[in-house]
Amino acid sequence: MSSGNSVDTENKYDSDKSMPISKVLISGDNDEYVILDNKRYMKHDLMRAFGGTLNPERYAPYPEHKFGNAAVIGLAGFSLTAFVLGLYTTGAMGIKIPNMIVALVIFYGGVMMFIAGVWEMVIGNCFAATALGSYGPFWLGYGAIFIKSFGISAAYGDDATQLKNAIGFYLVGWTIFTFLIVLCTFKSTFMFSFLFFMVGLTLALLAAANLSGSANTQTAGGVAAIIAGVVGWYNTVAGIATIHNSYVTFTGIPLPILGKQEAH
Predict the structure, then answer these.
(1) Per-residue pLDDT tens for 122-181?
(2) DSSP state of 127
(3) Strand, helix or coil at 105?
(4) In Å, how far are 95, 107, 128, 193, 196 from 226, measured between CA atoms?
(5) Where does the secretion signal sit in this chain (predicted)?
(6) pLDDT (0 to 100) of residue 46
(7) Domain for residue 51, yes or no?
(8) Is 152 a domain residue?
(9) Residue 90 forms part of a structural domain
(10) Which residue range(s) make up the domain with 186?
(11) Interatomic CA distance for residues 215 and 213, integer angstroms
């Protein structure tokens, strides 16, 4: 193995320990190792950590979860809910009644994501806590619109246009939030960043569909939701598949570094 080469960390942090990483070394015949504070990690393990742990920090070691990786079940909850909602939104099989979708939105997409977000805060992953802790309540709020006992839809009476516009405003706010989240993923991997981009695109298209009444835009939003669900599943498997339990593991493709380059 070749001797390690120092890399300027610029105040990088170890997400598990919440301590600044003082030195990053790249080593190996093909630069396949990253050494963080005298601990050696395989570079592909760090790349896999992005999607599977919802941690966008380039030099965050693959965490040792003593209590389990809560981000994975949060990702799973989002992915299944988004995928099925996308099918419903595109009008697949002529389904119009949203009751079954509401069951997923409330219990799997909503409650489970919120719990996962709270647990990610406990273990110190601020990004995952913010994302999961926000999108969980988003699903809960979105599902409440279609539950009669909440009286949200009933409050608009027969004014369907006003209801659609109100839902559109709700989705516009979440679109803005999502694209702010996307800004925090540019130092991660392609599939990690692409997931949040597709979430933002889905919300933007559904917001536009509600505000404009365009059926084609709504269908496009449903297709985007299906893609977001599939990409979410990719990141989910990246978080649970290892050489110990699977013959197939997913290695992330890092996004290019812009601006100041890392010196080897």
Answers:
(1) 988 999 999 999 999 999 999 999 899 999 999 999 999 999 999 999 999 999 999 999
(2) H
(3) helix
(4) 16, 19, 22, 16, 13
(5) none
(6) 66
(7) no
(8) yes
(9) yes
(10) 70-240
(11) 6
